[in-house]
Amino acid sequence: MTAQDFILKSYQTTVENGSVKWESPSNIALVKYWGKKEHQIPENPSISFTLSNCKTITEVTFTKKESEGFSFDVFFEGIKNEAFKPKIQTFFKRIENYVPFLKEYHFKIETSNTFPHSSGIASSASGMSAIALCLMSIEQILTNYSTLDAPDGFYNSTYFKQKASFLARLGSGSACRSVEGTLVVWGNNNTFEGSSDLYGVKYEEEVHSNFQNYQDTILLVDKGEKQVSSTVGHQLMYGHPFAKERFAQAHDNLAKLKTILASGDLEAFVKIVESEALTLHAMMMTSMPYFILMKPNTLEIINKIWAYRLKTDSKVCFTLDAGANVHVLYPENEKASILEFIKTELVSYCQNGHYICDQIGLGANQIEF
Questions:
Q1: How far apart are CA 187 and CA 200, in angstroms?
Q2: In the 3-class helix/strand/coil scheme, how is 312-366 assigned residue by residue?
Q3: In this structure, how many other beta carbons lie within 10 angstroms of the beta carbon of residue 339?
Q4: Which residues pair with 41 in a beta bridge?
Q5: Backbone angles phi, psi at 73, to 5 degrees
Q6: Could you give the CA distance from residue 138 to residue 161 in angstroms, rounded to a whole number?
Q7: Number of H helices and number of E strands within the chain?
């Protein structure tokens, strides 16, 4: 598929109004993407676990209008939110060629999260993918097709999800990995046939039973806004002294992870995942300007996990997004013991003792009225 395949050729203009609703999960990258080219194209491929409980729920109501230009209101957690409007405006500008009906309707966007916004749990990924999926459902209405009755090669479910992922990427890069689950690959690479820079691709390779229902408990070290946005962080990879080596490392780790996921080698999984997390933060600390998003309690948690693993031979590990919070990853058969470990040794390092229990999920869902 190319970008041209996602351009909407024609649609009805007789639909006066309607409403659609989707819930879309966050995701946590195992191999990280850091650095992007023009048009939200990643500098290196990534692969992520789709989460289950950490999600954004978005309803979009659309009403035909006569005036020109984009027209929308955003409500977050039931309150009108002007701060979100510039990002949505930018998103609409980027996707207008692919969904040209945007200027013909006023949109009321009502959204909420099941987790703290802008705290390193990829709220932009779940949020932008939820909006993209709503727009795709509106496109279905305006083209009078469903994924079941559309002509072959046009509106089948594969096309719907690919275009939703494509649109989501133009809002937030990692959002393209939130449409499907349980594992999603994004970024052209030689390891996975059919991989693309334009959208996330569902992982269809063999996955060992060790990784079924994999658990992710998110320790909320800092629930405040990040000091540096991911957008700024990605830009600092331009001219970064270690960028070329990092991009090559990501390709190598992706290939290694494919073998690990098939074999069920949990020790090798731990090494790749933790190395990727620390490399991501190393890129931040060695950029110019440099910055540190980890907090002292982040490091305390990491050291506690290492000590626990050494003592018990557990296969628990950590990963981090571009923030201070810690994702504690572990096999389902260790759930009871790891939750006890978290409660007794790690919860004291969380802000107000807060943490979220999650696991890998199947992707986004449309909510029927």
A1: 7
A2: HCCCCEEECCCCCCEEEEECHHHHHHHHHHHHHHHHHHCHHHCEEEEEECCECEE
A3: 16
A4: 37
A5: -125, 145
A6: 14
A7: 8, 14
Q: What six digits make up the tokens of 29?
A: 């990258």
Q: Which amino acid is at 343?
A: K
pLDDT of residue 182: 97
DSSP readout, 143-169? HT--TTTSPTTSS-HHHHHHHHHHHHH
CB atoms within 10 A of CB 146: 13
pLDDT for residue 312:
98
Task: Say whether 177 sits in a helix, a strand or coil.
Answer: helix
Distance CA(260)–CA(283), nearest Å, equals 25
| pLDDT reported for residue 155 | 65
Question: Which residue stretches of the chain have pLDDT < 50?
Answer: 153
Q: For residue 319, give Cα distances in angstroms to 163, 171, 363.
A: 29, 24, 20
Strands (E), the chain: 17-31, 36-37, 41-42, 46-64, 71-76, 79-80, 105-113, 183-186, 201-202, 215-219, 317-319, 326-330, 355-359, 365-366
Closest CA to 101 of 214, 199, 18: 18
Strand 71-76 and strand 105-113: pairing?
A: parallel
Residue 189 pLDDT: 98
pTM of this prediction?
A: 0.94
Q: Position 253: which residue type? A: N
- pLDDT (0 to 100) of residue 290: 95
Tokens for 57, please give them: 């729920």
